[in-house]
Amino acid sequence: MKGMILAAGLGTRLKPFTDNHPKALAEVNGKSLLQRNAEYLKSFGVTDIIVNVHHFASQISKTISNNNGWGTKITISDETDEVLETGGGLKKAAWFFQDSDEPFVLLNVDILTDIDLKKLLEYHNSNKALATLAVSNRETSRYFLFDENNNLSGWENIKTEQKIITRPNSNLTRKAFSGLHIISAEIFEYITQTGKFSMVDVYLELSKTQIIKGFDQGDCKFIDVGKPESIAQAESMFE
């Protein structure tokens, strides 16, 4: 299985660090977020990885080269000219996955977790899903909505009261997305968006006709290292 780490974001929530560095190189107990996620993927046998870059791209490329990819083979997807967001970034890297019909893993660089990728992949395969999203019951402002069979059925922003329903159902449950996906390779046949776009938009559109599942991550370790104060919290969770 191959993997992609999304590392092209500006990391504005991590200022002032990201005034001079990419968020991917923010450190937790002496290891960068990028290193930790490369090693996380490697621990599940995912050693062929593509990383998209934009903000201080050369710093990321140099760090990867200097550390020999931390034991993995890392390819760079260059978005220096324009950051393409999660969906556009994945679509630009489609060529990397098209020599295989195996599912692949996609994750945000600023997420740290110990979710069991093997169990996530087994769930994905057993449900013949086009994509499977790791989710939890944590509090946030934006939620995916799932039916009683964990099929993606909508999205809701509780701050703006915006709600999108793609599979009408009176019994929908809010789940917070954890920034980790298992995706079947054929998804590229269905993505119609171009340029800069979000995977949220892709999933909501495809959920009308395709199987997009939610996988409850349970009591695993998880943190969004998006703000300076979250670094200290992450250091108490990950050695």
List keywords for this structure.
239 residues; alpha/beta; Spore Coat Polysaccharide Biosynthesis Protein SpsA, Chain A; 10-stranded mixed sheet; two-stranded antiparallel sheet; 7 helices
How do the helices and strands line up, and which of them pair or pack?
Layout: E1 3-6, E2 27-28, E3 31-32, H1 33-43, E4 48-53, H2 57-66, E5 73-78, H3 85-92, H4 94-97, E6 104-108, E7 111-113, H5 117-126, E8 131-136, E9 142-146, E10 152-157, E11 162-165, E12 173-183, H6 199-206, E13 212-216, E14 222-224, H7 228-237
Parallel strand pairs: 1-4, 1-6, 4-5, 8-13
Antiparallel strand pairs: 2-3, 6-12, 7-14, 8-12, 9-10, 9-12, 10-11
Helix pairs in contact: 3-6
Textual characterization of the structure:
By secondary structure, the chain is α/β, with parallel strands linked by helices. It has a single domain (3-237), classed as Spore Coat Polysaccharide Biosynthesis Protein SpsA, Chain A, CATH 3.90.550.10. Helices cover 26% and strands 28% of the residues. It contains 7 helices and 14 strands. The protein has helices spanning 33-43, 57-66, 85-92, 94-97, 117-126, 199-206, 228-237, and strands at 3-6, 27-28, 31-32, 48-53, 73-78, 104-108, 111-113, 131-136, 142-146, 152-157, 162-165, 173-183, 212-216, 222-224. The strands form 3 sheets. Strands 1, 4, 5, 6, 8, 9, 10, 11, 12 and 13 form a 10-stranded mixed sheet that branches. A two-stranded antiparallel sheet has the order 2-3. A hairpin with a 4-residue loop joins strand 10 and strand 11 (162-165). Helix 3 (85-92) packs across helix 6 (199-206). The model has no long low-confidence stretch (mean pLDDT 96).
